[in-house]
Amino acid sequence: MSYFSYKILHLFAVLLLFTSLGSLAAAGSGGERLRRLASVAHGVALAVILVAGFGLLARLGLFGSIPGWAWFKIGLWLLLGLAVLPLRRKPEWTVWLWPLIPVVGGLAAWMAVQKPF
């Protein structure tokens, strides 16, 4: 698969991830069907982000030795993956998580563009 294809797939999955997290935050007080759909979308998005991200690293020739910025992005990916737990179990935290989640995504985007380390 080409670099461009991996990048489009990666970005599409990132959009799906944030859509699902926003839906989970909005469905905190009910809406079981929306919660189920958002949970499935969250899992699919995380898987596609990971696969496409490693595909991008391979296309950049960085698969043998993963740089620090990519490890940091994997850590942010884990945080976004775990963000679903407090959204489900502590709906009162939604007020704090709702603005924090895009900040984590912005940090991941900055890491990808700047590659600081």
The total count of strands amounts to: 0
Oligomer: single chain
Helix content range: over 70%
- % residues in beta strands: under 5%
Helix/strand/pairing category: mainly alpha
Q: How would you describe the shape?
A: globular
* Nearest-integer average pLDDT: 91
Query: What is Rg?
Result: 15 Å
Separation of the first and last Cα atoms: 27 Å
Count of runs of 4 or more consecutive helical residues: 5
- Major sheet attributes: none
Summarize the structure in words.
With 117 residues, the protein is mainly alpha-helical. The protein is 80% helix and 0% strand. It has five helices and no strands. It has helices spanning 3-26, 32-59, 68-82, 84-89, 94-114. Helix 1 runs antiparallel to helix 5 (94-114), helix 2 (32-59) runs antiparallel to helix 3 (68-82) and helix 3 (68-82) packs antiparallel against helix 5. The longest helix is centred in the middle third of the chain and has 28 residues, at 32-59. The radius of gyration is 15 Å and the shape is globular.
